[in-house]
Amino acid sequence: MSAPYHESASVAPAEPELPPPGTPDIEIARAVQPQSILLLAQQRFGLPADSLIPFGHYKAKLNLKHLGLPDPATYGKLVLVTAVTPTPAGEGKTTTSVGLNDGLNRLGVKSSVCLREPSLGPCFGMKGGAAGGGRAQVIPMEDINLHFNGDFHAITAAHNLLASIIDNHLHWGSESGLDPRYISWRRVMDLNDRALRNMIIGLGGAAHGLPRETGFDITVASEIMAILCMADSLADLRQRLARIIVGRRRDLSPVTVSDLGAEGAMTILLRDALQPNLVQSLEHNPVFIHGGPFANIAHGCNSVMATRYALSLNDVVVTEAGFGADLGAEKFIDIKCRQSGLRPDAAVLVCTVRALKMQAGTARNKLAKPDVQAVYAGSDNLQRHIRNLRQFGLTPVVSINRFPSDSDDEVAAIQAICSDWGVQAIPARHWAEGSAGASELAQAVLDQMDSGTPDIQLLYPDELPLTEKIETIATRLYDAARVDFSPDAARQLEEYEQLGFGHLPVCIAKTQYSFSANPKLRGAPSGHVLPVREVRLCAGAGFVVAVCGDIMTMPGLPRHPAALDMGLNAEGDVYGLV
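-> structure tokens emitted (578 positions)
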């Protein structure tokens, strides 16, 4: 599929004058004057002004009342961006997604990228911002990272409204029979705060509620976040909310949101949040950013709504899935694609020289020193991901996200390894050069789509028992020898099947830093045991979560949080957000 697709597609956008590479991301972003988002939508998509709801001059939501439902007959091609196993050295998956989209537009392809929204927790914690980096960023960067159009606040409010209704229901006698000992619905906030993980509420006497144990999770771990990203309409959103299981009765039968009558009020709070957000890259190419579920405890993809609308407006849509391909790509295909009917037409697997050297055991302070042998030693991780993607019917294009310290020999080593697998490996310099540095990668992706439509294979059928679904992922993707189910987890899985949820896909919640549940096992470990310590039923989102190892749904702050280096300067501009 060669460019250009449409005469209306943009060509070689004028490159703005930007500070040199290495300048803090926020300063690069601030050096670019965004285009009016209404003008951008009209020029790129032919959308009139009343088809968007502007949030200022440079951000907007799609007006779903005006647009109606997208027509699958008009869909363009879908490109999935995933990555090797994450390391502290960074892989740059979001940066690559933005750069690839800019590169496609530079070649004359009508393209947009769909991303998840950043969470305030990681932003103020360890990670910082999450809108790309260098010359492959999304703007306005500060707004996207801070409160972006109110979506996360709406999800937090809807989640906590349900929590308050539950406790009020108990206070007035629990007409549904909900047993306070079996309530599973906690509260959420979009910040990292370990002190809120476990607590006793309702103290102070009968007037202040029923004392019970509960706690807080981070908003991105809320089932409502996953529901928002899986829903394909307001009606579907309401139905999914109604199916949420908040706890059990004494006979262990489930109590749902529908039993409490709360789905209508929750839908009101989420009405506007369901509408996808439109912004732009540094090179003024359209970017959809919507939803942000955890890639551990949930499926880690942007919303189905944003993906579908983007596909209906473009010839190519680039999207990403959280963490490495063993988590993100698997959940994208086995959960998001299974439920939505979407299928990727190509895949990009992001890797770096630095990441492969860390997989081989190279210390972080020695990554800048050229070491071809370390690249080869760590390449088993890359090769495992290539093999795994082929199990889904995808032969990826490998994007080598190039750092200034990478030697030509190290890059050539990755290309040689990929060549042995029959896979193209393209060095990409979008971080330093913008679309010009991603043009070769963009052309390789177009060539891959030209070579034929992949035959996408789900990893397991719906009718497979839940335990066997988990075992299939563990043995085929993680190379585990077996799965060790705790007695409680085994009992709950059997119970879920008896309740009629055995057809649901499974979502493995484990460390992102290893194919195993042990973050210290680097490379491509085999023969390990995957411990499933608990399982959770997300009846509204439509999957069963298998929690493996030590996974926290309310992160804590590091010793020196990123928040301590942030603030406003004398002009009122944000600094320290990177």
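Residues 84 and 324 are 5 Å apart (CA to CA).
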